[in-house]
Design brief:
This protein is an alpha/beta fold. It has one domain (2-37, 78-170): Rossmann fold, CATH 3.40.50.300. Helices cover 20% and strands 21% of the residues. The protein has helices at residues 11-24, 47-53, 81-85, 156-165; strands spanning 2-4, 29-33, 58-62, 67-71, 94-98, 107-111, 131-136, 150-152. Strands 2-5-1-6-7-8 form a six-stranded parallel sheet. A hairpin with a 4-residue loop joins strand 3 and strand 4. The protein is globular and about 55 Å long.
């Protein structure tokens, strides 16, 4: 399931708290986070960094505690949320996708009311049929009324309880393969 919203809307803060609550409830969670442009998870001078800089297209680093795969694309390529989901362990109870606003995944829209610290942005729920609920800090400021469930951004326990109760809304459907 996705968590969609603009940068600065509080998606990461909310997702972090929801992960903690789901895991505390005994569930397994994977996360896919959309990143912009070039980013690095490796540190200059480390072996994996050196291998990648030497031209390796893929570098997999593994220990008895963790695995990380770095893949360099020969040409610029923006993977879809579905391509990334396929890379994860299929046995996870939840896959939370942060970002990918335009994806066809069922999602919770994180919408924050404009304030001195946040400029505010247009809402997607009026035109995105994949939005299953709106999580906000200001329901009275929503730009358009909605029959969707309204979740309290400051209540991650309520959000995770709503997710568990409505898990069927987020059952993953692989997209149909093209012949």
């Amino acid at each position: 399931m996705g968590f969609a919203g603009y940068s600065g809307s509080g998606k990461t803060t909310l997702v972090e708290a929801v992960i903690t609550l789901l895991v505390a409830g005994g569930e397994t969670v994977g996360v896919i986070k959309h990143a912009h442009h070039r980013f690095d998870v490796d540190q200059p001078g480390k072996d994996s960094w050196r291998h990648r800089k030497a031209g390796a297209r893929e570098v997999l680093v593994a220990s008895d505690m963790r695995l990380a795969l770095m893949r360099e694309y020969a040409e610029q390529h923006e993977p879809t949320a579905h391509e990334l989901i396929a890379e994860l362990d299929p046995g996870l109870d939840w896959v939370l996708v942060e970002g990918f606003r335009g994806s066809d995944l069922p999602k919770i829209e994180v919408w924050r009311a404009p304030s001195a610290q946040f400029a505010g942005h247009a809402a997607h729920y009026p035109s995105d049929p994949q939005v299953r609920a709106v999580c906000t800090d200001g329901p009275e400021h929503l730009p358009v009324g909605t029959a969707l469930p309204i979740l309290d951004w400051s209540d991650p326990a309520g959000v995770s309880a709503w997710m568990r109760h409505n898990a069927a809304l987020f059952a993953y459907q692989k997209p149909a393969t093209k012949p």
